[in-house]
Design goal:
With about 220 residues, the chain is α/β, with parallel strands linked by helices. The chain folds into two domains: about 150 residues, Rossmann fold; about 60 residues. About 45% of the residues lie in helices and about 15% in strands. It has ten helices and eight strands. A six-stranded parallel β-sheet has the order 5-4-1-6-7-8, sandwiched between helices. Strands 2-3 form a two-stranded antiparallel ribbon. It is globular, with a radius of gyration of 17 Å. It starts with a strand and ends with a helix.
Length: about 220
């Protein structure tokens, strides 16, 4: 019986690839670098702000000292216009509503910076307790994915066992986190990584549409 559904943010509940790329490319252009194609950010992103900019600087073969100032600039302009190019994926609000009707606690765990993640979550899904119960995002002391710490802390707070928790994400990092936590892993195919990559990373289920996640939960209740 699944009582807790946890989701990734970027590429899983919200379509934000264009947004991440837009503000990163603006930052690169400000610093005299050519922009990356938007699709490149499927693989550059996923590990949080610092990992994103480490990947970008490495790909550019640029001076590592540029990583921190460019990351800070990106965070600043992104937060100022956090919904630029970002929307909830079709079917996600209905999925979250369906899970709430089943009495399932819903949360997001993301490596995204806390100020941006919370603004996106609570703007698109309502303040905590509406479609989404909780948004856990990068904050001081947080151990980022694929470490399982945050999901284990959440399960402990909710009194949920490993077989009562479903974690859904679009990235191999998400599947690794689920495996590390010992919870049920569901890969979603509408985000950054492919079905094959998600299966290879350990997905127990694959969802091609958000409504399938509700069906997985319903099946666990029978």
């Amino acid at each position: 019986m699944i009582r807790l559904c946890v989701f990734d943010l970027d590429g899983t509940t919200v379509d934000s690839l264009a947004s991440i790329a837009h503000f990163a490319n603006l930052t690169l252009e400000e610093n005299g670098f050519a922009p990356f194609p938007v699709d490149d950010y499927r693989h550059l992103a996923g590990g949080g702000a610092r990992k994103l900019w480490q990947n970008i600087v490495n790909a550019l073969h640029a001076d590592p000292s540029l990583q921190e100032p460019m990351m800070k600039r990106w965070l600043t302009i992104y937060e100022q216009d956090f919904l630029w190019g970002t929307r909830a994926y079709d079917g996600v609000p209905e999925m979250l509503n369906g899970l709430k009707e089943l009495g399932v606690y819903t949360a997001i765990i993301t490596n995204k910076a806390k100020p941006i993640a919370e603004k996106i979550c609570f703007t698109l899904f309502g303040e905590a307790g509406k479609l989404l119960d909780e948004c856990i995002s990068d904050h001081p002391g947080m151990t980022l994915k694929p470490a399982p710490d945050e999901i284990l802390h959440l399960m402990d707070r909710r009194g949920v066992s490993k077989d009562e928790c479903l974690y859904s994400g679009d990235h191999t990092i998400d599947m690794q986190m689920a495996r590390n936590a010992g919870v049920i892993a569901c890969g979603v195919t509408w985000g950054f990584h492919t079905r094959e990559a998600l299966l290879n990373a350990g997905a127990d289920h694959i969802a091609d549409h958000p409504r399938q996640i509700v069906e997985i939960v319903k099946s666990s209740l029978r």
